[in-house]
Amino acid sequence: MIELTTLYKKLLDIYGPQNWWPADTPFEVLVGAILTQNTAWRNVEKAIQNLKKQGFLEPATLVSLPLKAIEEAIKPSGFYKLKAKRLIEASKAFIKLWPGNHLTVSELRKELLKVHGIGPETADSIILYAFEKPTFVIDAYTRRLFARLGYFESENIPYDVVKRFVESRIPKDLKIYKEFHALIVEHAKRFCRKSPMCYDCPLLECPKKDFTTGNTTLDQPSKASS
Ligand code: SF4
Predict the structure, then answer these.
(1) What crossing angle do the helices spanning 159-167 and 120-129 adopt, rounded to 10°?
(2) How many A from CA of 205 to the centre of ligand 1?
(3) Is residue 84 over pLDDT 90?
(4) Residue 146 CB–ligand 1 contact under 6 Å
(5) C-alpha of residue 189 to centroid of ligand 1, in Å
(6) CATH 1.10.340.30 is held by the domain 26-129
(7) What is the tens place of the pLDDT at every residue in 127-160?
(8) 193 lines ligand 1 (CB under 6 A)
(9) Beta-carbon-side half-sphere exposure of residue 105 (alpha carbons within 13 Å)
(10) What are the pLDDT digits (tens) for 25-82?
(11) Do domains 4-16+137-200 and 26-129 have the same CATH topology?
């Protein structure tokens, strides 16, 4: 079975640095982390553009807006009524916690998890990419890849178990945590999809490599849907 540190190095060799998160400010990271719940990133981009165009992408501005104005701007991201409420609550938390220098990762995580609509994945994304503190983000792509690589028997492993598995095996380094998560997402979108493209997959160490489903190339756009 490929070691986790080797997996990281391999993915980095294959895809190069991803330089995540795609956002101009830490607050934009938080907004993106909320809006990306249950939707594709291309829809989030449209919603963020709307917020930017209207000058809404500031925490103090966002919390002062009528709910309807936020709902209208973020409509492309889906579940917009729910997400508008979540954005307001998350923005209030951001105002209270930023820049978070006085808080440890676990203190910050605890505070974010108190916010309605922020679960472990969203909290860890915000901590890692907005507050820039090392905590590993686990998502469906990570679970899928790790199950196929044989780290776990299935994809239905509790969040904290997978998180501990990673954090106990790779150095607690902000840059590595940021890159590794982004590289896993990239690999899952290009090759390790729901229907895996194993035939052309460059991860030769994978025990599933003898699959012969599908075909693809490394030239596909990075934001291709999974
Ligand atoms: S060989 Fe198949 S299952 Fe393994 S990582 Fe590649 S795409 Fe995923």
Answers:
(1) 30
(2) 9
(3) yes
(4) no
(5) 11
(6) yes
(7) 999 999 999 999 999 999 999 999 999 999 999 9
(8) no
(9) 16
(10) 999 999 999 999 999 999 999 999 999 999 999 999 999 999 999 999 999 999 999 9
(11) no
